[in-house]
Specification:
CATH superfamily: Electron Transport, Fmn-binding Protein, Chain A
Largest sheet: 8 strands, antiparallel
CATH topology: Pnp Oxidase, Chain A
Number of strands: 10
CATH architecture: Roll
Shape: globular
Radius of gyration: 15 Å
Strand content: 35-45%
Oligomer: single chain
Structural class: alpha+beta
Low-confidence stretches: none
Number of domains: 1
Order of helices and strands: EHEEEEHEHHEEEE
CATH class: Mainly Beta
């Protein structure tokens, strides 16, 4: 089944389920090479009069290097399918293996420096418009620190949603 483009405001689905329960793949490229990682933190909404998503990536993740170099990233959603593949992409590093091949996923370029996957049911093509680091001194709820025992704080990327592809 081929993808068709819709407007961001036509996107259906519960984003809490899409991201938090079903997970997503965050993918970035630096030209011909790319990496992907599984994520279950993030969100979507409207900011600065733009449709946006926001994702969080720790600096030690291989995908972080690609995210820092490029100006775009994609979010691929699988509707709860491909759980084993997403689990593998969260466990293994692209530094050490071809995890996309091991996961049995089919890369698909959906724009310049915009890798996604044929198996996805929804893909967001996004342009980075803001980033900042999570900082301990800005934590208003001390219980959040349980996520940062190693003090390896995420960088948050706010990205304008340029294209939404659905099957």
């Amino acid at each position: 089944m081929e993808f068709r483009e819709i407007k961001p405001e036509e996107l259906s689905g519960n984003t809490f389920k899409m991201i938090g329960s079903d997970w997503m793949l965050v993918s970035c490229a630096d030209g011909e090479h790319f990496n992907t990682m599984t994520a279950s933190w993030g969100g979507m909404g409207v900011l600065w009069s733009k449709p946006v998503c926001f994702v969080f990536i720790r600096p030690q993740r291989y995908t972080f290097e690609f995210t820092e170099k490029g100006d775009r990233l994609t979010l691929s959603f699988f509707g709860g399918r491909e759980r084993d593949a997403l689990s593998l992409c969260g466990r293994k590093s692209g530094r050490d293996c071809d995890k996309v091949k091991e996961a049995g996923l089919t890369p698909l370029w959906v724009g310049e420096n915009a890798p996604a996957f044929q198996e996805a049911e929804t893909v967001l093509v996004c342009k980075k418009i803001y980033s900042d680091d999570i900082r301990e001194e800005k934590m208003l709820d001390p219980s959040i620190m349980k996520n940062y025992s190693a003090k390896d704080f995420h960088r948050v990327y706010v990205c304008e949603i340029e294209k939404v592809l659905v099957k």
